[in-house]
Each structure stands twice: as structure tokens, then as C-alpha cells.
Amino acid sequence: MATIRKLESGRWQAQIRVKGNPILSRTFTIKSDAQRWARVSESEVETRGLPTNVKALERLTLGEILERYGREISPTKRGRRQEISRIRLIRKNPISAYSLTNLTEGVVAEFRDQRLKVVKPSTIVKELALLSHCVGIASRDWGYPIPTNVFAKVRKPSVRDARDRRLTAEERQSLDKACRKEKSELYSDIIQFAVETAMRKGEILNAQWKHIDFKNQTLHIPITKNGCPRTIPLSPRASAVLRKRAAINQEHRVFGISERGLRKGWRRLMQESGIKNFRFHDLRHEGVSTLIELGLSVPEVALVSGHQDFRLLARYVHLRPENVAAKLAKLTQASQE
Fold first, then answer.
1. How far apart are CA 41 and CA 16, in angstroms?
2. What one-character DSSP code corresponds to residue 160?
3. Residue 52: its pLDDT value, please?
4. Tell me, which GO biological process terms does this entry list (predicted)?
């Protein structure tokens, strides 16, 4: 029996239910197209039985489409290494053995709750997003008649594990001392540049001389995490770092070091300095927070950091209470004069 319903998006979904078999479903922009498809498909089911791709759906497991997704889709992404690792982990979970016709919201909710016992909520959110996109690709691009994306419908856990790690003054001195023990000033320059620009590690490593405008004190970032290129202003200290590197390195990449090389160097610095629980990405937190403390407005900080949603800056901005207290005292004194 065919049914037509209007979705919240304004599109029309046609579904055909056949007892004992998975639901056939397609979505259309125009209602008449949905009605036409339903009539033709219902007639074909009555005369010829279920389409071949529906029968294949009964045998296809989540693990199998994850394997194909990791082979065809993940390699095209910037974070492919992390995503492929995440896929391997999920494929070891019992949920990967479920066929796409047997996946229900209850099965997904059980997977979510079991994973929450061993990983953080933010990890679960990433895994559910990956699984949702995987099922969506299988439905839209690979021709599997999946009636509903159960991963998109299940409730996501609240994420309250955002990091607020910043360097103390003593830790910054220890890090500077560890940098001075290195044979070159490369790591010291990268760290200072990271704090001054609040750029991500990948953006820093991919920075090229052709993207720098010393006259206007700007740096263009053509490839970003959110896919939106941006041009950021450079502080005097950031410009000084770039001019120093220009006298040392004439290669097309500004810092001339690989992600692996930086990872090894960062590990050495943490061991030498004795600093615990501090990641390179935390320098971005440090940079954004410093910009706020210097008096830049949220829109101005977003211009530097690349945040499109100002509310997301709350995850990175962690003001030091003593600095705010000092600012309040200064404002109070100024108002009394």
C-alpha cells in the first residue's frame, strides 16, 4: 500500500509497504512526482515482486557499507586518517553485523548507550554523524532503497567535555626553555605564530609564501576545516615570525615541516618541559582567549579564527578571572576620575 506525506523540509515522501518486507521509499520535490512513482512502483511490486536492490538490502550489513564508505568516500576528506580509524573501530562493534533492514532506532540507541560507558559524548556524536552520512550516501548515491536514516533520528548525547586547557605563566616559561634546547628556532616560531593567529595546525603547516601579503599584513587561507577560505590580519609579532622564516626558508611552505615531524617535535617539547595534558590544538584556545583579553570584539576575533557561528567561540574562549578583575578595577578607576 502506497502513502504520500509532506516532510518538514517541504519535500514529498512516497512509501510502499509490503507485508514481511522492507519499506520502499523515495523523496520528491513535487507531490505529483511522488504520486506517479508510487503508482508505478506499487504496480511493479504486484506483478514482478520486490526489486533486486531491495532484496540485496536484506543481505547488506552496516559493516559492508562502512567498508565501502571508507574505501570510496573517506579518502576524499581532509580528516581521512582519523575517519578511517573510526570506521575500523565501529566495524568491530556488534552493530556492524546488522543488515540495513534490521537496523532500528532501538538498536542504534543501544549502541549509543554502550559506547557512552567507554568514550566521551563528543566521540559518540562524531560516530553517529559518520554513520548517518554513510547511510545517507548509500541511499542517495549507491541506489539502496533505505526508507529512513535511523542514525539521524536517534537522540544525540549532550556534549559537555569541551577543553578549557590554557598554559600557565610557569608552563609558558618551561615551554620556551624547552624550545631553546632545540637545534633551530622552528618550534618556537610555530608556537608563537599559532598563538598570534589562532590558526589550526593543518592551516599553519600548509601556509605558503604566495598567500602572504606583507604590505597589507594579511594571510590568505584557501583550505579550511569548514570549507570556507578566509583572509586573516597579522599581528606585528606574527609578521615578525614570518619575516624571520623568510630569511631562513625559501620553500613554498612557510615552516617546511610535515605533520609527522611536528607531532614528534611536540612530543619532545612536552617531555622536556614537563607539561602535562596540553595538546598543540590548545594553542588555538590560547590564541582566541588572548585576542579577547586584548579587547577585540567577538566579530573581530571570528575574523581571525574563522568561526562562522559566534556562539561556538564560547568553546574556545576561557577568560582568566584575574585579568577580568584587573580590567574592572581599571574601568572603575577611570569612571571616578
1. 8
2. -
3. 46
4. DNA integration; DNA recombination
Average pLDDT, the chain: 85
Where do the DSSP E strands lie in the chain? Answer: 2-6, 12-16, 24-28, 212-213, 218-221, 230-233
C-alpha 328/C-alpha 331 separation (Å) is 5
Residue count (the chain): 337
Q: Are 249 and 256 in contact (CB under 8 A)?
A: yes
The residues near 146 (Cβ < 8 Å, ≥ 6 apart) are 25, 57, 100, 135, 138, 139
Residue 44: per-residue pLDDT: 63
Question: Does residue 159 surpass a pLDDT of 60?
Answer: yes
16: confidence class by pLDDT, cuts 50, 70, 90 = confident
pTM, 2 dp: 0.60
Identity at 175, one-letter amino acid code: L
pLDDT digits (tens, 9 = 90+) for 264-292: 999 999 999 999 999 999 999 899 988 98
CB 191 within 8 A of CB 179: yes
Rounded (to 5) percent helix, strand, coil in the chain: 55, 10, 35
Q: Does the structure show a pLDDT above 60 at 241? A: yes
What does R_g of the chain's alpha carbons equal in angstroms?
A: 26
Torsion over CA: 99, 104, 110, 113 (sign): positive
Enzyme catalytic residues: 200, 225, 281, 284, 307, 316
CA distance 211 to 196: 17
Taken in order 74, 284, 213, 263, the sign of the CA dihedral is negative
Which domains are delineated in the chain? Answer: 2-41 (no CATH), 58-153 (1.10.150), 169-333 (1.10.443.10)
CB distance 184 to 232 below 8 Å: no
- Tell me what pLDDT residue 317 has: 61
Grid coordinates given for 114: 554502550
For 268-304, b where at least 16 C-beta lie within 10 A, e where not — what string? ebbeebebeebebebbbbbbbbbbbeeeeeeeebbbb
